[in-house]
Amino acid sequence: MLVIDEESIKKARITLVLITINVMAYFIINVGLGQDYVILLSQIKVNVYEGEVYRLFTAMFLHADLLHLFNNMIFLFLFGIGIESNYRRIEYIVIYFMSGFIGNLFSLFLLPSNVISLGASGCVFGLIGAAIMSYVRYDKSAILFGIIYLMFFLVQSIGQPEINIWAHLFGGLSGLLLGFLINKNKNIENIY
User: Fold this and answer.
1) Backbone phi, psi, residue 44, to 5°
2) DSSP reduced 3-state for 116
3) What is the per-residue DSSP string for 117-128?
4) Between helices 121-138 and 165-183, what is the axis angle to 10°?
5) What are the tens digits of pLDDT across the range 117-137?
6) What are phi and psi of 139, to 5 degrees?
């Protein structure tokens, strides 16, 4: 079960490292180097099509402003700790980066060409999806509640300007799928 307590926080090394990297990236790039470097590393359709594929990855660690960073890091903290308690380290890392990459890939094709995309939201929504699948491992009836929970976050995203709903949606779906594939062969007694 997903539980956040003092012990799980102490063991949340990957989550704390990811938060540290995101925060450091914000202060080094946004504050230290400036907006030109943010643009240089953000996901921009034209640049990715011209071969700058690295932007699909670097955009996962960039944030537009402190509020954007704060929101993503709060959810990374809350869901990351729970995921880290219920998945192997390699599984956590795969869920995080694959969800972010798939979210960015779909947004690359579905967003208009002039949109600049950045943020850890696709990764974080992937963790939410994987958390739902952890609940389902313990209680099969939780799938409906979990999908409603994920939809709640997605619906909140739709009404906000400058939110990449595609990264949220496909990051979340990726987390659900990866969480399902990882959990389908695990039994409750043998998580690790």
Assistant:
1) -130, 125
2) strand
3) E--SHHHHHHHH
4) 30
5) 899 999 999 998 898 887 777
6) -145, 100
Instruction: For strands 116-117 and 43-44, give the pairing.
Output: antiparallel
Which CATH number applies to 6-183: 3.90.550.10, 1.20.1540.10, 1.10.220.30, 1.10.10.10?
1.20.1540.10
Q: Round to whole Å and give the CA distance between 125 and 146.
A: 12
Both tokens of 5, joined, read 């307590």
Q: Which helix (H) or strand (E) holds 117?
A: strand 116-117
Q: Residue ranges of the alpha helices (H) in 140-192?
A: 142-158, 165-183
* CA max distance for the chain: 51
Number of other CB atoms surrounding residue 11 within 10 Å = 13
Q: What secondary structure does DSSP assign to 25-94, as a single string? A: HIIIIIIII-HHHHHHHSEEHHHHHTT-TTHHHHGGG--SSHHHHHHHHHHHHHHHHHHHHHS-HHHHHH
- Tokens read off for 167: 């990264």
Length of the chain: 192
Q: What residue segments make up the domains of the chain, in order of their start? A: 6-183
Per-residue model confidence as pLDDT tens digits over 13-30:
999 999 999 999 999 999
